[in-house]
Design brief:
heterotrimer, A mainly alpha (281), B alpha/beta (224), C mainly alpha (290), B: 224 residues, alpha/beta, 2 domains, two-stranded antiparallel ribbon, 10 helices, 8 strands, C: 290 residues, mainly alpha
Chain lengths: 281, 224, 290
């Protein structure tokens, strides 16, 4: 019974984290239309900024706000100096992918220099709450609450605001959106900021629950790609359904084949999804 | 080439509906119609770019040029033409290091681009690239040739040259299908013409009669 | 002098990897980010075969055969995917391979790795000295690269360029494009595996970290910096970037942080190439594969 309760909490936490992760990736996909490996760099920046603030003695809310700020600024700088130029020269998706790999390599290298390649924990002292047979940590509750807030905000923005409509318009046909009066640069900047916020929240959530190291974000990025593809790339409101399905598959694979095969299972699902979608078109 | 009841849908959108076309060897057939009438879909089906179960046997006897010129930017003029006339087998392709082929040279000579055979295709003008496409289609030596808006972007001198080539190919008993918007050209060179509108064939016959058809005038030129 | 010979051997091996990936990504437009997987398959197959008592020659045949079969299978499975999706799919099987290496510890020794891989004996001559191994590596990889160069200059190379630039247009001319893609994928993977056989018998120790996604990205960097689709450019790019750690030491960067500095510099180079010189530093301007 306790094991089942623990698994349930783990699934809920995983759903919350992956939902946020997927929403951020979908925002980037909407404006860039290529698999941006730089999203993994944003996760790293967010998580390690939080770590740096915490180590400097900041409280959790201050560290979180500081991490969000730094992450958003870095994302906007990348957008302005790298991705704008890539689009201006009509770079192919292949070249864009290569550049985004370069961005991740730079961030990974800098993070490794500043914080070493060792795994770091984001929480010095963890509190646990016990409800009947369920034991939940403070960081898990925080991640679940943050995940719910991010999802509800993203869903509302996507379906009830002009920004959400504009993001969809840019995703479908940027030229037409521009001709229709949509401020493309503004939409891109805001989308990049949303993606940075999601990346930071997800990175901190994972770091609070497990640990962080310079290579952890790549695995998260690939999870985000799989989840986003389940119900369609760029579909922000449905990210939670993809996260639910993916979380169940992941937890089931850990129970059935063991934690060592988790990534292999993820990718098997990814490859099958890609092939299924390819067969449909 | 006899095509009967050709149909194709893109998802839920019907692009071609029960279109029947007959083209004889040694003739030039024109296909005209407003934008979105299904002309490109027809050509794509007949030239292996769209799947078709019933007419797969036709696909192996056809070649084409494209409305939007499609040459491979990493290749030279001669390379682009050689792709149409060299071996298709992958193992034979590995052992083949030929950089000349009399068929390719003849085709390039025909279109007047032999002097640019070693030039990268991206360095050619639009009209020259169209001529390379024509040379490529000729070099493939297929009995059925589809030309999709071949004359767009050509100078008057080049147009005359191309018309001369088409008439020569016609005399060699090739089956030529020309998709065009230039109605005068259709009248001048085509033996018969088919008019498509909304995925259906609304008229067919000799150009002079077809172009006088009120249905055709309404669909194609707005009744003017 | 010994150090120069060592550097030359490693340089040749990575040049072989870079050139084979350049043909795959640059010439054929098949964006694989998992070239290190085949490097690893070759290395592990050789090590396991030699530990099983087989000669180096037999081990190489085994390694290349296994690679040809598995890479052809993977290529067939991933064929229907568009370019960027293919890249993500290739991430996938790279992770799968790493997982198999780690989880299959009873065979591969997991993260501990395999020690004591013997040096090869070629025609009865044991390549114990580094100079003899260098000559052997130069001959073997020189032949492999020559074969790749020949392929790119043949009609097959012409077809690969067409597949890269506009695959649907090539369909009109009735080329069986899938066959060409599978064959070039298998050939370039076999060359990577050959590099793996040399690497395993030279360093005599292999572990999963040497063939991870990071390594694949590093090989991609060599190619992107040197020039996608340019064999000469890729080899020069490999030479330049492999010498980077030496240059870093020369300017006084401590060896503890050399790996991190390398990563930063490779990343900057990739971004610079993508933004300002997509044809690479050593390729001719019109050879823009991407």
């Amino acid at each position: 019974m306790e094991a089942l309760s623990t698994a349930t909490v783990q699934i809920v936490w995983t759903i919350a984290t992956y939902t946020v992760l997927s929403i951020g990736f979908n925002y980037l996909w909407s404006i860039n239309r290529f698999f941006d490996i730089g999203y993994a760099a944003q996760i790293l920046v967010g998580a390690y900024s939080f770590y740096a603030f915490e180590r400097a003695g900041a409280s959790l809310p201050v560290a979180a706000c500081g991490a969000l700020g730094i992450s958003v600024i870095c994302a906007l700088i990348l957008e302005r100096f790298v991705y704008v130029r890539l689009r201006a020269q009509y770079a192919s998706p292949l070249m864009s992918l290569i550049v985004s790999v370069g961005v991740l390599a730079v961030v990974q290298g800098v993070v490794s220099m500043l914080f070493t390649t060792q795994s770091q924990t984001l929480v010095v002292a963890e509190h646990y709450f016990r409800f009947s047979t369920v034991s939940v940590s403070y960081s898990q509750i925080l991640t679940i609450i943050l995940g719910c807030i991010v999802y509800m905000c993203a869903r509302y923005v996507s379906t009830h605001t002009s920004f959400g409509t504009q993001v969809r318009a840019v995703q479908d046909n940027e030229q037409l959106a521009r001709t229709s009066g949509v401020g493309i640069a503004r939409v891109r900047s805001l989308s990049v900021m949303c993606a940075a916020v999601c990346a930071t929240v997800a990175g901190i959530g994972v770091g609070l629950n497990t640990s962080i190291n310079p290579a952890f974000s790549m695995s998260l990025l690939l999870d985000a790609v799989v989840i986003s593809m389940i119900f369609g790339l760029g579909n922000i409101p449905r990210a939670i359904y993809g996260a639910m399905l993916f979380s169940c598959i992941e937890v089931a694979s850990v129970w059935v084949v063991g934690p060592g095969w988790k990534d292999a299972t993820t990718f098997s699902v990814l490859i099958m999804l890609l092939l299924y979608r390819s067969a449909k078109t | 080439m006899k095509l009967k009841n050709l149909s194709f849908s893109y998802g839920g959108i019907c692009a071609l509906r029960d279109v029947s076309i007959e083209c004889m060897p040694g003739s030039i057939t024109g296909i005209i119609g407003p934008n979105g009438s299904g002309k490109s879909t027809l050509v794509n089906m007949m030239t292996n770019m769209l799947p078709t179960k019933d007419f797969a046997h036709v696909q192996f006897t056809t070649t084409r040029t494209f409305q939007d010129v499609r040459l491979w930017k990493g290749l030279t003029v001669l390379d682009a033409v050689l792709l149409a006339c060299e071996s298709r087998g992958m193992f034979r392709a590995i052992i083949s290091t030929k950089t000349t082929n009399p068929i390719a040279h003849e085709a390039l000579d025909h279109v007047g681009l032999m002097h640019k055979k070693d030039v990268n295709v991206t360095q050619l003008s639009y009209g020259e690239r169209k001529l390379v496409e024509l040379a490529r289609a000729l070099a493939s030596q297929k009995p059925i040739l589809f030309f999709d808006e071949l004359f767009a972007g050509l100078s008057s001198v080049a147009k005359e040259r191309v018309i001369g080539i088409l008439i020569e190919e016609k005399k060699s008993m090739k089956t030529i299908v020309v998709i065009e918007h230039n109605l005068k050209l259709i009248q001048d060179i085509c033996n018969s013409v088919y008019v498509l509108d909304g995925g259906r064939c609304i008229a067919s016959g000799i150009p002079e009669e077809v172009l006088k058809n009120p249905l055709v005038q309404e669909a194609y030129s707005g009744g003017i | 002098m010994e150090y120069l010979i060592h550097l030359s051997i490693i340089l040749l091996i990575y040049s072989g990897l870079a050139v084979s990936l350049s043909v795959l990504v640059g010439k054929a437009g098949i964006f694989s980010v998992a070239h290190a997987t085949w490097f690893g398959v070759g290395a592990y197959a050789t090590a396991l075969s030699m530990f099983g008592g087989y000669s180096y020659g037999t081990s190489v045949v085994v390694a290349i055969s296994v690679t040809l079969v598995v890479s052809a299978f993977v290529s067939i499975v991933l064929l229907p995917l568009a370019k960027e999706q293919y890249a993500i799919g290739s991430f996938g099987y790279s992770v799968l391979f790493s997982t198999i290496l780690i989880q299959g510890a009873s065979v591969t020794h997991g993260t501990v790795g395999m020690f004591g891989i013997p040096r090869p004996t070629v025609f009865g001559f044991l390549l114990e000295s580094n100079i003899s191994f260098l000559v052997f590596t130069a001959v073997v990889l020189g032949s492999a690269v020559t074969i790749l160069w020949y392929i790119t200059r043949s009609h097959f190379g012409r077809v690969l360029c067409a597949i890269r630039d506009d695959e649907p247009a090539l369909k009109v001319f009735h080329y069986n494009i899938n066959h060409f893609k599978v064959l070039i994928y298998a050939i370039t993977s076999a060359v990577a595996a050959l590099c793996g056989t040399l690497y395993a018998t030279y360093v005599s120790f292999i572990d999963p970290s040497s063939f991870s996604l990071t390594e694949s990205i590093f090989i991609l960097t060599l190619v992107a910096v040197g020039g996608l689709g340019s064999l000469r450019g890729s080899a020069l790019g490999a030479a330049t970037l492999m010498l980077l750690p030496e240059m870093l030491r020369f300017v006084g960067v401590p060896s503890e942080s050399a790996a991190e500095w390398r990563m930063v510099i490779y990343g900057i180079l990739l971004v610079y190439v993508g933004l300002y010189r997509p044809q690479g530093f050593f390729a001719r301007p019109h050879l823009t594969a991407a």
